[in-house]
Amino acid sequence: MMGAIPVEHGLILAGILFSLGLIGVLTRRNIVFVLMSLEVMLNACGLAFIVAGSRWEQADGQIMFVLILTLAAAEVAVGLGLIIQMYRRFQTVDINVLSELKG
Amino acid sequence: MLDLIWLLPTFPLLGFLILALAEGKLAKGPAGWIGAGSIGLSFAVAALVAVSFLQSGLESHTVPIWTWMSVAGFDPGVNLYLDGLALVMILVITGVGFLIHVYSTGYMADDPDFSRFFCYMNLFVFAMLLLVLGDNLLLLYLGWEGVGLCSYLLIGFWYDDPYNGYAARKAFVVTRVGDTAMAIGLFLLFAQLGTLNIQDMLHAAEAEWAVGSSLPAITALLLLGGAVGKSAQLPLQTWLPDAMAGPTPISALIHAATMVTAGVYLIARTHTLFELAPNVQLLVAWVGLITLLMAGFTAMTQNDIKRILAFSTVSQIGYMFLGLGVGAWSGAIFHLMTHAFFKALLFLGAGAVILSLHHEQDIFRMGAKRKQLPVGFLCFLIGGLALTAFPYTSGYFSKDEILIAALEVEGQGIWLWLGGVIGAFFTGIYTFRLFFVVFFGESRGHHDATEVKGLNIALPLFILMALSLFGGWIPVPLDAVFSHGAEHEEHHISAFMHGVMIALPLAGIAISYLFYGSGILSVEKLMSLPVSRALHRFWNSGWGMDRLYDFLFVNPFLYLARVNAKDIVDAFYDMLAALSRAGHLLIVRTQTGYLRWYALSMAAGLVALIAIGVLL
Fold first, then answer.
1. Which of B108, B342, B370, B564 has the most CB atoms less than 10 A away?
2. How far is the alpha carbon of B585 from chain A, nearest alpha carbon, in Å?
3. Under DSSP, is residue B248 helix (H, G, I), strand (E, B) or coil?
C-alpha cells in the first residue's frame, strides 16, 4: 500500500510544487512559460488531492484529479490557441507588451 | 342647449391638435379652413347658447364635464359655468376672434408659417374660453397661464428677428410678476375659504369676512396684482407696447380685444371680494385713472401706428379699471365689449394699411392715403370716432356709463370723473392725430400704394365697422351677475357735466385738426421750445418707465448674473466632483495592465486572507 509515504511529505511536496509554479507565473515574461507554470500549479493541486485521497482511503481524491486533468487539458488547448493568436497579432510572446488595458 | 357649452372650447382645441399634429405639412387652404372654421363653429355654438340663455331667464348654469383629480376630499372638476358675464366674454372671444381669424387667412397668406400661426391662435382661443368659462380657480388659472403662453408664442412668432424674441420674453416676464401675486392670492383664498369653486368661494367670503377687514383687502390686492400684469396697467404696463412686435392680427386679438382684458374679467368675476375691500376697490379706480392718463400722453408722441394703438389700448383698459373701481361693473364689461369691437377694427385696419404700404409702420412716412386706401380710411374714421366716444357710436355709451358712475363716488368722485374726461380729450387728440397724419396732408412716401384685395380681409372689417357704430345698443345681460351692486338707480347728472363729456373729445379732434389736418397751428413751432422738446422725449419714452425698470431691476440682475457667472451654489458640487476625481486618479494607478501584477495581487490577497483566517 501507499501508506508507506507519510501524508505530510506528500503535502509538503505539493506545496513546494505549487509555490514553484506560482513563482514561475509571477516572474516569467514569456507567456509560454507562464502557461507551463500554471500547469505545474494545477498538478500540485492534483498531487494534494491524491495524497489526501490515499490518507483517508477514499476514491474522491482520484476523481478530483481526473477532473483537474481534464480541466488542464482544456485550458492548455484554449491557452495555446490564444498564444498563437497573440503571436500572430503582436509578433511577440512577452506579456508585458500586452498592457493596453491600464487605467 | 346650455349643456352644449362644452363644445365651445372643444372646437378650438381640436383645431389646435389637428394643426399641431400635421406639423405644418398642411396646405394653406385646409389649414386656414381648419383654423378659422373651428372658431366659426365655436361662435355658432356661442350664438345658440346665447339665445337659449336669454330665453331661460338669465339663470346661471354649471355644466360638469369630468373630475380633474380626486385626492383626499380635494376634487376640482373641469366644470364650465355660464352666466351673463361669461356669456358676454364668450361672445366677444368667439365673435371678434372669428372675424380676426378670417382676416388672418388673408393677412398671413404669404407667410411660410401659416399653419403654425393658426395652431397658436386656436390654442389661444381655447385657453381664453377656459379662462372665462371655468367654474373654479384652478381652471381659471390654467386658462390664465395658457393665454400668457400663447401671447408669448405669438409675439415671438417671427422669431428670426432677435427683437421679437426680446419683446416676447419681456411680455412673459413682466406678466409673470403679476401672475405670481395672483397665484399667491388664489392660494390664500383656497386656504382661508376651503373651496376652489368661484361662486361658493365668493359666498363664503361674503358670509365670513367683514367689510374693510384685512383678509379681503390682501386677497383683493394680490388678485389686482395679477390683473394689472395681464391687463398692462400701472406699474406693469411696459410690456404691451413691445408686444406689438407680433403680427397685427395678434395685436388685435390678444393685445387689444381679449387677453389684455382678462384682468378686467378677473376683477369683475371676483367683484364681491373687492366690495369687501373698499380701499382696494378705490385703488383699482386710481390705477386705472393714472394709467389712462399716462398712456394718453404717451400715445400723443408715438410715431409707430401700432404703438399708438397699443398705448391707446392701455389707456382704454385704464377706463375699464376706472369703471371697476367705482363699482360700474357692467359699465366696465360693456366697455370691454365695445373696446373689443373698435380696437379690433383699428388694429385690423392698421394691418391693412401696413400691408398695403409694404410693412411701413411710421405714420410720418404715410400721408394723404385716403384716396388710395378707402377701406383703411373708413376703418380709421369709424374706429377713431368710436374710440373717442363720438356721440352714439359704441364707445360713447360705454365710456359714458363709466364716467357717470365715477362721478357718484363720494369724495373723490369729481377727481376721478375729471381725470377720465381729460383722458377722453387726449383720446381725441392722439386718435385723430394718427388719422389726419396717415390719411390727409401731403403724401410722404409710398405714393403708389394700392389697397390689399380680398373678401376675407374686407368682410371682417365691414362687420367690425357696423359693430363699432351700433354696438352701443347691444344689451348686456349683466344685472343678475352684479345684482347687489348699487348701480340700479337711475343716474342723474347735470346737463353741463354731460355737455363737457361730449365736448372734450370733440375738442381733442378739433385740436388734432388744427395741428395735423389744416396746419393752422404748427407742430414745429410748438416743438421749438426746449420745454416741449423735453416733455416730448419724456412722454415718448413712456414716462421713462422702461429706463426706470432697467435701472431698478434689469441692470442689477444682469450685474449679479455677471458677478455670479460661476454659480456659488455650484462650488459645493464642483468640490464633490473634484474629490471623486482625485480618488479615481489614486486608485487607477493600481490598474497597470500587467497580467503578472494582477496575479501577484491576487496571490498576495489570498495569502493575506488565509493568514487572517489562520491567525484569528
1. B342
2. 9
3. helix
Helices (H) and strands (E) in chain B, counts: 26, 2
Q: Are B139 and B269 in contact (CB under 8 A)?
A: no
Return the exposure string of B448-457: e unless at least 16 CB atoms fall within 10 Å of the residue's CB, then b. Answer: ebebbeeebb
* Interacting residues of B228 by C-beta distance below 8 A, sequence separation 6+: B178, B234, B235, B236, B237, B263, B287
User: Which string of DSSP letters, residue by residue, matches B457-485?
Assistant: HHHHHHHHHHHHHHGGG-----TTTTTTS
Does an H or E element contain B62, and which? strand B61-67
C-alpha–C-alpha distance, residues B83 and B135, integer Å: 10
Distance (Å, whole) CA B185 – CA B531: 44
Reply yes or no on whether the pLDDT at B74 is more than 80: no
In this structure, are residues B136 and B196 in contact, taking their beta carbons and an 8 Å threshold?
yes
Neighbours of B555 (CB within 10 A): 11
ipTM rounded to 2 decimals: 0.83
| Amino acid B94: pLDDT | 92
- What single DSSP character describes residue A97? G
List of chain A residues whose C-beta atoms are within 8 Å of the C-beta of residue B596: 25-27, 29, 34, 95-96
* Contact assignment for A103 to B590 by CB distance below 8 Å: yes
Q: Find the closest chain A residue to B592 by CA distance.
A: A102
Chain B (574-593) residues lying within 8 Å, Cβ to Cβ, of chain A? 587-593
Angstroms from B587 CA to nearest CA on chain A: 9
B603 contacts A103? CB cut-off 8 A: no
Query: Which residues 8-27 on chain A approach chain B with CB closer than 8 angstroms?
Result: 22, 25-27
Segment B427-448, tens digit of pLDDT? 999 999 889 888 887 878 777 7
Of B502, B537, B304, residue with least CA distance to B403: B502
- Shortest CA distance from B590: residue in chain A: A103
Q: Which residues of B touch A29 (CB under 8 A)?
A: 596
The string of pLDDT tens digits covering residues B461-471 is: 999 999 888 88
Q: What is the DSSP string of B327-376?
A: T-HHHHHHHHHHHHHHHHHHHHHHHHHHHHTTS--BGGG--S-TTT-HHH
Q: Which 73-102 residues of chain A touch chain B by CB within 8 A?
A: 95-96, 98-102
Residue B573, Cβ density class (10 Å: 0-12 exposed, 13-18 middle, ≥19 buried):
exposed
Closest CA to B79 of B128, B130, B122: B130
pLDDT tens-digit series, residues A17-71: 999 999 999 898 898 999 999 999 999 999 999 999 988 888 999 999 999 999 9
* Distance in angstroms (rounded) separating the CA atoms of residues B541 and B241: 11
Provide the shortest C-alpha distance from residue B603 to chain A (in Å). Answer: 8
Note the pLDDT of residue B41. 92
Q: Is B82 helix (H, G, I), strand (E, B) or coil?
A: strand
SS3 B111: coil
Lowest pLDDT segment from B57-71, B462-476, B561-575: B57-71
B256 three-state secondary structure: helix
Burial zone of B150 (CB within 10 Å; 0-12 exposed, 13-18 middle, 19+ buried): buried
pLDDT interval class at B391 (50, 70, 90): confident
**Cβ separation of B596 and A95 shorter than 8 Å?**
yes
* B 596-615: CB under 8 A from A: 596, 599-600, 603
Contact across the interface for B600 and A103, Cβ inside 8 Å: no
